[in-house]
């Protein structure tokens, strides 16, 4: 028995010594041997690791969302006649007789491009107003390769939205997301046709919500994203990781003309409201009371001896406007509209715009430090021309 134990001990000692020598002088042999003889894991552990691998792969890829939404995103090509002023000699009948036709031939149409989103299987396309502004011809290129003409159903320059219709059916329409679920940090994808290179998908996150005071549109409530958006993306889709439409890509902040990580999209809730009104009545109707307002700064709050820094200071009241008929004056501070707090002039504009014309609205104001309740009969906001950019 002792002899067997001695032989076993010597064998183990020699084996360990050999392993030590191999590990010291030939480590690649030990590494290759260890890889060729994996440890047999229990089936349950192997299944768990496989599930984790699948989850990791799914989290790192957004191909399902992209494949779901991409067929609904279209490229929009527009053209309009050149707006160059005629030469003064064109007023001479003799000159026009000899050179008029040649001058007209030399005027080439101006072309531009953008993107759009199919929101209805029967041919409704949502895009930006500035994409199709002043266009004489609009061509929509579908994801399946077809190219079809489009006509304008209606536009809303104050939110920079437009609705087109194409003569086609059974189109792949996008699914609208629930706007309230969007949150800062959510992953989003931007789909469009940047620089005309073709349909492109870029990825980022929602950087901020409710961006306003940017001077882009009259009514601003932008989603800010760092998903790269470039010229040609305007009117395209901003989608979530389920392929649902979160917003309509509209503008970028850039010093070079390219993406700098700050892009803005119109929220799907606002786009839906505008689209429904355009489809129903051909235009967007908004409430209006006829005042000019500005934000309450710290200096104004101190000057008016205010205890709060919210509200909108009425800087002017238009003649014969609903505000004048209700007795509002310059210097009044608008605090609430229909029970909803007015944070600033932008909030005031949006709240009033959301009211129906001829509706009786209760507003709370501060006049000379005294709170007052006023009833205003809401008017219809006059249509204004959007400044071309």
UniProtKB/TrEMBL annotation:
Q: InterPro entries given for it?
A: Chloro_Bact_Ser_Proteases, PDZ, PDZ_sf, Pept_S1C_Do, Peptidase_S1_PA, Peptidase_S1C
Q: Show the GO MF annotations.
A: serine-type endopeptidase activity
A Pfam family hit: Trypsin_2
Q: Which residues form the PDZ domain?
A: 278-346
Could you tell me which Gene3D superfamilies the record lists for this protein? 2.30.42.10, 2.40.10.120
Give the family per the record.
Answer: Belongs to the peptidase S1C family.
**Mind telling me which PANTHER family this protein's record contains?**
PEPTIDASE S12 (PTHR43343), PROTEASE DO-LIKE 8, CHLOROPLASTIC (PTHR43343:SF3)
Task: Output this protein's name.
Answer: Do family serine endopeptidase
Record lineage: Bacteria, Pseudomonadati, Pseudomonadota, Betaproteobacteria, Nitrosomonadales
């Amino acid at each position: 028995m002792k002899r067997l134990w001695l032989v076993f001990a010597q064998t183990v000692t020699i084996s360990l010594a050999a392993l030590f020598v191999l590990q010291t002088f030939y480590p690649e042999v030990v590494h290759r041997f260890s890889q060729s003889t994996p440890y047999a894991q229990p089936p349950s552990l192997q299944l768990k690791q496989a599930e984790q691998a699948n989850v990791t792969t799914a989290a790192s890829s957004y191909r399902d969302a992209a494949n779901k939404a991409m067929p609904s995103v279209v490229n929009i090509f527009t053209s309009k006649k050149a707006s160059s002023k005629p030469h003064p000699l064109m007023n001479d009948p003799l000159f026009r007789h000899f050179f008029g036709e040649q001058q007209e031939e030399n005027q080439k149409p101006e072309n531009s491009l953008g993107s759009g989103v199919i929101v209805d299987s029967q041919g409704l396309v949502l895009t930006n107003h500035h994409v199709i502004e002043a266009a004489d011809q609009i061509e929509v290129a579908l994801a399946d390769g077809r190219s079809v003409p489009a006509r304008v159903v209606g536009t809303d320059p104050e939110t920079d939205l437009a609705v087109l219709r194409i003569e086609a059916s059974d189109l792949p329409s996008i699914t609208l997301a629930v706007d309230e679920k969007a949150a800062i940090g959510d992953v989003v994808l931007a789909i469009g046709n940047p620089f005309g290179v073709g349909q492109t998908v870029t990825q980022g996150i929602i950087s901020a919500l409710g961006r306003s005071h940017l001077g882009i549109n009259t009514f601003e409530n932008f989603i800010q994203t760092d998903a790269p958006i470039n010229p040609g993306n305007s009117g395209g889709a901003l989608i979530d990781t389920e392929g649902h439409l979160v917003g309509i890509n509209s503008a970028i902040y850039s010093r070079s003309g390219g993406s700098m990580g700050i892009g803005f999209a119109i929220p799907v809730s606002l786009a839906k409201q505008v689209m429904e009104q355009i489809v129903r009545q051909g235009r967007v109707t908004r409430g209006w009371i006829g005042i000019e307002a500005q934000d309450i700064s710290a200096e104004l709050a101190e000057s008016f001896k205010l205890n709060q820094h919210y509200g909108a200071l009425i800087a002017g009241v238009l003649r014969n406007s609903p505000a004048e008929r209700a007795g509002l004056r310059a210097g009044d501070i608008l605090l609430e509209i229909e029970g909803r707090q007015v944070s600033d002039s932008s909030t005031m504009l949006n709240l009033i715009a959301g009211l129906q014309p001829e509706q009786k609205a209760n507003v709370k104001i501060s006049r000379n430090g005294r709170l007052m309740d006023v009833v205003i009969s809401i008017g219809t906001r006059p249509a204004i021309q959007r400044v071309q950019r």
